[in-house]
């Protein structure tokens, strides 16, 4: 997947997604999440690929290893560029996901990249302690998921900008740090807790940024995209 910002197409129909994309020249990175995928099904991935978009299929799989393996085999056939699983599913599940992807990737095509979700960017320290009953800090928990993802052979993780530097130190520069929770300095946080600007993401060592509402909710989405891209590129 190219390193330009990944725009989250959090729309409830293909029609709306393509209407939004009209403002762009094509060739940008997009993210298809649960809302659009559950509404439109696998066809949305093919449609976006046909129109020249690189697709991050953000379905965050989390189930027993065998089920995830079979599901990944099917997802590999769709031609997405990047997919993900929840690190909380464990190392065996992540290994199974990778196996499924390898098996399902059509001959001659490149296996989609795969990243592990660490702690969601909407999660904050208190939840880690009081809901998940995890006895270490949020950052240490994210780091553990990163180490697990790496040892399972994954290409990287989804994390917040705030953990990207520590992950780079532990897992290396090449290991993907896909970071959502990106906001322009003057934008709102919405339901995200661990947010940062595109410039902060670059300095922290993010390899990819995922941007949703800061672009899709802007009065001029194209201008917001250009601004975010220029701050990201530095
Ligand atoms: O609108 P916003 O920029 O907050 O959108 C972020 C997108 O990234 C959403 O589609 C959300 O599902 C996704 N995401 C996230 N945190 C993760 C993984 C994915 O916010 N850890």
The percent of residues in helical segments reads 40-55%
Q: Class in CATH?
A: Alpha Beta
How many H/I helical runs?
Answer: 11
Give the CATH superfamily.
Aldolase class I
Widest sheet: strand ordering: 1-2-3-4-5-6-7-8
Distance from first to last alpha carbon = 19 Å
Q: Which small-molecule ligands are present, each listed once?
A: cytidine-5'-monophosphate
Protein structure class: alpha/beta
CATH architecture: Alpha-Beta Barrel
Describe the structure.
The protein is an alpha/beta fold. The chain has helices at residues 14-21, 34-40, 43-50, 65-76, 91-104, 125-130, 138-151, 161-171, 198-204, 213-216, 221-233, and strands spanning 6-8, 29-32, 54-61, 82-86, 113-117, 156-158, 176-179, 208-211. Strands 1-2-3-4-5-6-7-8 form an eight-stranded parallel barrel, surrounded by five helices. The radius of gyration is 17 Å and the shape is globular. Cytidine-5'-monophosphate binds at residues 8, 10, 33, 58, 117, 120-121, 158, 180-182, 190, 192, 210-214. Residues 8, 10, 33, 58, 117, 120-121, 158, 180-182, 190, 192, 210-214 line the site of cytidine-5'-monophosphate.
């Amino acid at each position: 997947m190219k390193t330009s910002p990944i725009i989250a197409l959090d729309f409830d129909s293909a029609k709306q997604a393509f209407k939004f994309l009209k403002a762009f020249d094509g060739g940008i990175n997009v993210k298809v999440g649960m809302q659009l995928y559950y509404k439109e099904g696998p066809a949305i991935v093919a449609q976006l690929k046909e129109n020249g978009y690189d697709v991050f299929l953000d379905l965050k799989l989390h189930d027993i290893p065998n089920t995830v393996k079979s599901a990944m085999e099917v997802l590999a056939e769709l031609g997405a560029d990047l997919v993900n699983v929840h690190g909380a599913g464990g190392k065996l599940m992540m290994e199974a996901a990778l196996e499924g992807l390898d098996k399902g990737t059509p001959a001659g095509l490149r296996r989609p990249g795969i990243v592990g979700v660490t702690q969601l960017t909407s999660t904050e320290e208190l939840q880690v302690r009081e809901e998940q009953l995890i006895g270490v800090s949020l950052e240490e928990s994210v780091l553990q998921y990163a180490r697990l993802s790496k040892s399972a052979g994954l290409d990287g993780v989804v994390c917040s900008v705030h953990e990207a530097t520590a992950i780079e130190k532990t897992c290396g520069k090449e290991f993907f740090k896909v970071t959502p929770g990106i906001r322009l300095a003057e934008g709102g946080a919405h339901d995200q807790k661990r947010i940062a600007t595109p410039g902060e993401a670059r300095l922290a060592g993010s390899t990819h940024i995922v941007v949703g509402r800061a672009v899709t909710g802007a009065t001029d989405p194209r201008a917001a995209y250009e601004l975010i891209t220029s701050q990201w590129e530095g």
